[in-house]
Specification:
Elements: E1 3-7, H1 15-23, E2 27-31, H2 34-43, E3 48-52, H3 60-70, E4 76-80, H4 85-93, E5 98-101, H5 106-116, H6 119-144, H7 148-164, H8 171-192, E6 197-200, E7 203-206, H9 217-227, E8 232-237, H10 242-252, E9 256-265, H11 272-281, H12 285-291, H13 309-319, E10 326-331, H14 334-344, E11 351-356, H15 358-368, H16 370-375, H17 379-392, H18 394-404, E12 408-412, E13 418-419, E14 422-425, E15 438-441, E16 452-454, E17 470-473, E18 478-481, H19 486-493, E19 497-498, H20 504-507, E20 508-516
Parallel strand pairs: 1-2, 1-3, 3-4, 4-5, 8-11, 8-12, 10-11, 14-18
Antiparallel strand pairs: 6-7, 9-20, 12-20, 13-19, 15-17, 16-17
Helix pairs in contact: 2-3, 6-7, 6-8, 7-8, 7-10, 10-17, 11-13, 14-18
C-alpha cells in the first residue's frame, strides 16, 4: 500500500480528499505544520508528500528544503493558492515533483499519484501490452521481407522495442524475434548480395537498383549539401548501431533538428578496413587496391588498416573534380577532441570530417576486460554506456559548438556491431585473418549452414590476397573459432560485441542529416 504524507494547516478541510484516497487504497498520514511533518519523516518515509505552500511558522518552502535535505528521493507536490511566478520558480528550483494551484479536485490528486508513484509500472504494462499486440505483425514482417527498405523498417522496429522493453520480463521475446530476424536477413543477403554488383571488364561497381552502400554515402549525403553552399561536419562514429543513435538522439536534439533520418547498408565485410575506406574513397575495396595501391593495406600487413583515410577523401574529390577544401580529424582521446573544438571556430573549409573511435574502443576493451564485460553485459547496458560517454565526453561539446557555428551535421558510421553467442568451427591456413566474424584465405572449410561464402571476391569488389582466396561470413550471433583450443576461444568471445559479419545491427546503419537550431 502506497503511503501519502499530506501537510496543510487546514487539514480538517481536506477530509473529503482523505476519504477519497483511502477508498482508492492509499494510506494517509497528515500534519498541520512543517515541524510535525519533519518529525513524522523520522518515523516513516512516505512514497509522496503533498505540501501546502502557505503555512504559519515553518513555511512550505522551508519545509520543502528540509524534506529534500533528509530524503531527496521522495517526490513532493507543492499545493498553493498563489500564482506568483517567483514562488513557482523557487519551488521548482528546490526540485519539486509537481505544482498544483488551489482549489484542486480529487482527479488532479489521483493523477499526481499515478504520475509520480505508479508511472513506471503503468508505462511498463502499457508497453508490454503494445508489444503483445504488435508481436505477430513483426513476425509477419520478418517472414515476408523482400526488399532492403523492409529490412530497414524491421531494424527500426526491433530497435524501438529493444529500447522500450529493456528492463521488462518480456525482454526474452524481443531477443527471440531479433534472432529470427537475423536468421532470415542472412539468408536474404546470401541470396541477393552478389546481385548488387556488376562487372564491366576489370571494373566492379554497384548496380543502379542496389541499395545505398558504403561507397555511395558521400555522393548521396554530403555532396548535395556542399552544392547548396552549406558548411558540413561529417561525423563518423565507429561501431555505431541504429539503437545507439536513437539513444543519444534526445541529447543531440538540444541543439540540432533532424532534417532526414536514413539507413544505409554497409558492404561486406562490415569492418573498418573495408567499409570506412569505401565511404571516404567512394570506391569498393578492390577498386582502392587497383587504383591507389599505396593506400590499401592487406589483411596480413601490420600497418593500421585505416591510416590513409584523409588521402582517400582527396582522391574522391579529385575524381569528381570537386574543388572544396576539407579538414579531417581522427579522435581517439578526449584531449584531442578538445583541440578540435578549439580549431572549429576558425574553420573556413566547407567540408569537415571527424572520426570518433570511442565506441569501437569500448567494444574491444569489453572483450579484453572482465570489468567492462560486467558494465556492458547486454545491449541495454551497452546503450547506457554509449549514452554516458556522449553526455560526459567532449564529443557532446564538439557537436554543440558545431551547431552554434552553423555547421550542417551528417552523423553516420561505417558499420555496427552485434553480440556473439555461438562459436562455429572453421578450418583455414595460417595466413588467414584474425577477425572472428569473417575470414579471408585459402581452403576455408566450415560445416555450419549459417556461414555465407563468397568464392569469387572480385565479383563483389573485394581484393583477393591469393588467386584461390575466398571470404566466409558468420551470420546472426555466430563467430568463428579454430579446432585448436576451440572451447577456450568459444568461452572467451561468447557474449562480446563483434563486427565483420552479417546481421541487421552490423549492416543496417544510421545516416542522419541534422540542421542547427537557431
Amino acid at each position: 500500500m502506497s503511503q501519502i504524507l499530506w501537510v496543510d494547516d487546514e487539514i480538517d478541510l481536506l477530509q473529503p480528499y482523505i476519504i477519497y484516497l483511502k477508498g482508492k487504497g492509499y494510506e494517509l498520514i497528515t500534519a498541520t505544520n512543517g515541524e510535525d511533518a519533519i518529525d513524522l519523516l523520522d518515523e516513516s518515509v512516505p512514497d509522496i508528500v503533498f505540501l501546502d505552500e502557505n503555512m504559519p511558522g515553518m513555511t512550505g518552502l522551508e519545509t520543502l528544503q528540509e524534506i529534500k535535505r533528509l530524503h531527496p528521493e521522495v517526490p513532493v507536490v507543492m499545493i498553493t493558492k498563489s500564482e506568483e511566478e517567483h514562488i513557482m520558480e523557487q519551488a521548482i528550483g528546490e526540485k519539486i515533483a509537481d505544482y498544483l494551484i488551489k482549489p484542486v479536485n480529487p482527479s488532479q490528486i489521483l493523477l499526481c499519484l499515478k504520475k509520480h508513484i505508479h508511472q513506471q509500472e503503468i508505462v511498463t504494462e502499457q508497453v508490454q501490452q503494445n508489444y503483445r499486440q504488435e508481436w505477430s505483425d513483426i513476425s509477419y514482417m520478418i517472414d515476408t521481407a523482400s526488399t532492403i527498405e523492409e529490412w530497414q523498417a524491421i531494424e527500426r522496429t526491433l530497435s524501438k522495442w529493444d529500447i522500450e522493453l529493456e528492463n521488462s520480463p518480456m525482454r526474452s521475446l524481443i531477443e527471440d524475434q531479433r534472432t529470427q530476424a537475423n536468421a532470415a536477413f542472412a539468408k536474404w543477403i546470401a541470396k541477393h548480395y552478389e546481385g548488387w554488383f556488376e562487372v564491366q571488364r576489370d571494373n566492379v561497381q554497384s548496380k543502379k537498383d542496389a541499395p545505398l552502400l558504403s561507397m555511395n554515402v558521400m555522393k548521396h549525403a554530403v555532396f548535395p549539401l556542399l552544392d547548396k553552399g552549406e558548411k558540413v561536419l561529417l561525423c563518423v562514429i565507429d561501431n555505431f548501431r541504429y539503437d545507439q543513435w536513437k539513444t543519444i538522439q534526445p541529447l543531440i536534439s538540444e541543439f540540432y533538428t533532424v532534417r532526414s533520418e536514413e539507413q544505409y547498408t554497409s558492404i561486406l565485410p562490415t569492418a573498418t578496413q573495408y567499409a570506412r575506406n569505401a565511404i571516404f574513397s567512394g570506391l569498393l575495396p578492390l577498386q582502392i587496391q587497383q587504383m591507389y595501391p599505396q593506400y590499401w593495406v592487406e589483411e596480413g600487413d601490420e600497418e593500421t588498416k585505416n591510416q590513409y583515410e584523409k588521402e582517400l577523401v582527396q582522391t574522391l574529390l579529385d575524381r569528381y573534380r570537386r574543388r572544396e577544401t576539407f579538414n579531417y580529424w581522427k579522435v581517439n582521446e578526449s584531449d584531442f577532441c578538445e583541440r578540435v573544438i578549439m580549431q572549429l571556430k576558425g574553420v573556413q573549409a566547407p567540408l569537415n570530417i571527424v572520426v570518433l573511435n570511442f565506441i569501437d574502443m569500448l567494444s574491444h576493451s569489453r572483450t579484453e576486460s572482465k570489468m567492462m564485460r560486467e558494465l556492458a553485459n547486454d545491449e541495454g547496458a551497452y546503450r547506457s554506456l554509449t549514452l554516458s560517454w556522449f553526455r560526459h565526453s567532449p564529443t557532446y561539446e564538439l557537436l554543440r559548438r558545431a551547431a552554434d557555428l552553423g555547421f550542417t551535421l551528417v552523423l553516420t558510421t561505417d558499420h555496427g556491431t552485434t553480440r556473439v553467442k555461438n562459436a562455429v568451427q572453421i578450418i583455414a591456413d595460417k595466413n588467414t585473418n584474425t577477425n572472428i566474424r569473417y575470414k579471408v584465405g585459402k581452403a576455408l572449410n566450415c560445416t555450419s549452414k549459417n556461414v555465407f561464402f563468397i568464392e569469387q571476391p572480385k565479383q563483389v569488389g573485394l581484393p583477393c590476397p591469393n588467386v584461390s582466396s575466398s571470404y566466409a561470413f558468420c551470420a546472426g550471433s555466430d563467430f568463428f573459432a579454430y579446432p585448436n583450443q576451440f572451447n577456450y576461444y568459444a568461452q572467451y568471445y561468447r557474449n562480446t560485441f563483434q563486427h565483420g559479419g552479417i546481421s541487421l545491427e552490423e549492416m543496417i546503419i544510421p545516416l542522419v542529416t541534422l540542421t542547427p537550431k537557431k
